[in-house]
Amino acid sequence: PYSPCIQDDPDIKRMMAGSTLRKVKSRSWKKQRHFRLLEDGLTIWYKSKWAGKGHSTFSVTEVEAVREGHQSEILLSTAEEFPADLCFTLVFHGRQGNLDLVAESLEEAQAWIQGVRKLIHKAETMDEQERLDQWVRDWFQKADKNKDGKMNFKEVKKLLKMMNVEMNEEHAYHLFKMADKSQSDSLEIEQFVHFYKILTQRNEVWKVFQDYSGDGEKLMLEELENFLRTEQQEEEQSTQHAKQLIESYEPSETVKKQGAMSLEGFQMYLCSQDGSIFKPGLLELYQDMSQPLSHYFISSSHNTYLLEDQLRGQSSLEAYIQALKRGCRCVEVDCWDGSDGEPVVYHGHTLTSKILFKDVISTIKEYGFRASDFPIIVSLENHCGLEQQTLMAQHLTQILGDLLQTSTLDGQVPQQLPSPQELKGKILLKAKKIGGLEKCVDETLTDEVSDEEEMANGDEESPTEEPQAEKKNKKSKLSRELSDLVVYCKSVHFHGFEHAHCHAKCYEMSSFSESKAKKLGKEAGTEFVQYNTRQLSRTYPSGLRTDSSNYNPQDMWNVGCQIVALNFQTAGLEMDLNDGLFKQNGGCGYILKPDFMRDGNTHFCPEKPEERRDYKPRRLSIQVISGQQLPKVNQKEGSIVDPLVRVEIYGVPQDQAKDETSHINNNGFNPVWNATLNFVIHTPELALVRFVVEDYDKASRNDFIGQFTLPFTCIQPGYRHIHLLSKDGMAIPPSSLFVNISISDYE
Q1: Domain PH spans what residues (predicted)?
Q2: N or C: which end of the chain has fewer CB within 10 A?
Q3: Of the residues 347, 395, 682, 723, which is catalytic?
Q4: Is residue 414 a contact partner of residue 490, using CB atoms and an 8 Å limit?
Q5: Is the distance from CB of 724 to CB of 705 less than 8 angstroms?
Q6: What is the mean pLDDT of the chain?
Q7: To which H or E segment does residue 648 belong?
C-alpha cells in the first residue's frame, strides 16, 4: 500500500520481521512482548510471548513522537537496570498514556526508533486523497481474513457493514461488477479502492457542481469564480483564488491545462483546508501581540500535575508535557514540604502520588516553548516552610536562569502590564510577594501563603480539606528569596472592585473560585470587565469537583477573566470550548480580547449586550446537508449509528442556544439531513459555535460520535466541511459534516 521505497527501507523490514521488546509499566512490571509492523505498513501488532489468542494493535497515526533514551518518568526510575541506548518511549496524541519499551540490542532499538519516525513522517505528509485511500486500504486489510488479498461480494458486504455503510444490495452489486475488471467475482485491494470511490460519489456535491457548471463536466475559471463569489461570499481576489484552487486540487492535468476544475477536483477542494469551516488565515498568528497581558485570554490549566482525578490520581511530569503541548500558557504547581528536604508537588491531603518540584521546573523549561514562544505563567500554590521555599527559589533561578523574569523590563515601576511580545520566551512566577515593586520593604510578611486556601475562607463550596492543627499555623512566613522572584504576578486577596479601582497595582492579581467569579459576573458585570482591562484574574474549579470535572469557561471569558484554569486532563465540552477558542492565532495560547473589553471606561455588560455602543447582532443560518464516514460508536457486530447533528452556541447569556436535526436511521456512512438551523448572535466577538454529532438512542442518553468547536468570528460562510474531532480533541479522518453557512446582519 505504501510507495515501494518505504517497504524496502531496512528499518521498516526489521520492524516487519518483528522483535522482542520489553514493555515497562513500573519498576516492578516489565514484561517481554513480541512486536511487529503489519503488512499495511501502518499497524503495530504485539502480544505476550506465552498468551494464547490475545494481542493488541495500534496505528502509527496515533503516535505523535518517539523519545530516545531515558525520557519518561518510568524509564528514568528503572535507569539503573536498562541502559539508555536500548530504551525508547512512544508518545501518543491526546490523553493516551505513553508506551515505554526496551530493546535487546542497540541495532534493534535504533531500527524501531528510526522506523517509527519514518512512518510518522510518511503519515503526516499524505494529502487528503492519499489519506482517504489509506483509510480504505486499512479496512480492506482488516477484513481480508484469509490474507489472500481478494474479496468476494459476500465479504465486501460484511466489510461495508464494518465501515458503517448500510446500502441497497442491488446497487452495491452493480458497482461491484463494474469494479471487478478481471471478472473473477472478487476484488483486489486497488479494485476495492475504486469500488469504494464510485460508491461514495457524493450526490449533494454533484448538485452544487451542476448549478455552476455550463456543460455539467467541468467548471471553467469564471464559473468557479462565480461560485466563490456567490456561494462562498469571497468578494476580493476571487480570480486569483480560483486559479490557486485549480492548481492545488485539480487531479487531471488535461483539465488543469484548460484552467478548469472537474467534479473530482471540486470535491477535493471542498474537503480540504480551503474548503473547511475555519478561515485558514486565522489559524496563523494574526493578532497584535504588543498589548498589555491583561488584554488577552490566556490558555490556563488547573492542577496541571494530575493525569486523572484529584483524590487518587497519579501526579506526573507527563501531565505538564501534555498541557504545554496543547498550548497551555499558565500551569499550576502545588508545593509541599518533602520528607527528605526536597519540595514535592502533589494534591495535598490526598492519595495522589508525589513528584519533585525541581523535576517539574526542568520539564517546564524543556517543553514550555515548543508549542508557543509567548510567556508562561507558573502559578505557585505554596504550602512549604521557609527552608524549602528558599530551596524552591534556588531551583527556579538555577534551572531556569535567564528564562525567569525576575525584574521589570525597563527597571521602572509599571503603570500597565508588559505585552506577550515583550515577554517572549520568558517564564513569570505568580505567587505572594513581600511589599511591592515601588520600594524595597524590609519586613517579613506574615500572611496566608496559599491562594486557594485563602479563597477557601470565603468560599462556601470548598470542602475543608485541612486538619485544624494546620489552620492554627496558617500565618506561615514567606521566604524573601522566593518573594524576590515575583514581578508581574503578585497574588493578593481581592477586596472588591471599588478598592481595586482606587488602590490596586496592575501587577497585583487575585484568584476566584468558579462560584465567586460567576456571582461577581452576575452582580457587577461591567465592573468586572473594567477591572480585567488592567489587572489579571485567575478563576479555578470548585473544591467540590473531586472528579476533576470542569466548569464552563465561557461565563468567565464573558467578563474578561484572562486566566480561566481548567482541568486539561478531563475531556468534554469545557475543554472543547477552550481548544476551540485557542485554535486560532497560531495556537499560541494568547487571544486578544475584543476592543470593548480592553477599554478601561467600557460600559459593556454581558447581561445587556444591546447597550453596547457598536452593538451589531448577526444572524447565523446553518444548513446541515450531510455527514461522511462517521465513526462507529458501538463496536458490536452489525450495529450502525442513527446520527443527528446539534449546533450549540456559547457566548453572553442571551446567545446561549442549541438546536438539532432529526436523526437518520442506520446510516453513519453518508446520512443526508438537509435541515436548516437559525440563530441570532448578539455579541459575535465572544461567541463560540460547537457542532456535535450523536448516535440517537430513544431509551437512554445519546452516544457522542464527534464534535468541532470554533469562534464565530473564524467561520467561513458558504459550502464547507467540518472535520470532526474525537472526545479527546483528536482528528478522526475521514469523518466530516457538509454544511452551507450564511451570516448576515440581524435587522
Answers
A1: 13-121
A2: C
A3: 347
A4: no
A5: yes
A6: 90
A7: strand 643-650
Please indicate whether residue 70 is annotated as part of the active site: no
pLDDT over 80 at 683, yes or no: yes
Whether 603 sits among the annotated catalytic residues: the reply is: no
Distances (CA, A) of 110 to 45, 101, 134, 719: 18, 12, 26, 47
State the number of CA atoms in the 13 A half-sphere of 208 facing the CB. Answer: 22
Please tell me the number of Cα atoms within 13 Å of 332 on its side-chain side: 28
How many other CB atoms are found less than 10 A from the CB of residue 168?
Answer: 8
Name 438's bridge partners: none
Which H or E run includes 65? strand 63-68
Q: Is 432 helix (H, G, I), strand (E, B) or coil?
A: coil
Model confidence at 53: pLDDT above 90: no
| Residue 599 assigned to a binding site | no
Beta-carbon count within 10 A of 458 CB = 12
* Residue 640 known to bind ligand: yes
Cα separation, 100 vs 67, whole angstroms: 9
Closest to 579 (Cα-Cα) out of 589, 564, 592: 589
If one compares 7 and 320, the residue with the highest pLDDT of the two is 320
Q: Is 249 annotated as a binding residue?
A: no
To the question of whether residue 601 is assigned a binding role by annotation, the answer is no
* Active-site annotation holder among 70, 295, 302, 721: 302
| Other Cβ atoms closer than 10 A to 653 | 17
Name the band, by pLDDT with cuts 50, 70 and 90, for residue 520: very high
Strand 590-592, strand 296-301: pairing: antiparallel
One-character DSSP codes across 322-346: HHHHTT--EEEEEEE--TTSS-EES
How long is the chain?
747
Q: Is 538 annotated as a binding residue?
A: yes
- In whole angstroms, what is the distance from residue 395 CA to residue 195 CA? 62
Q: Categorise residue 24: left if φ over 0, alpha if ψ from -120 to 50, beta otherwise.
A: beta
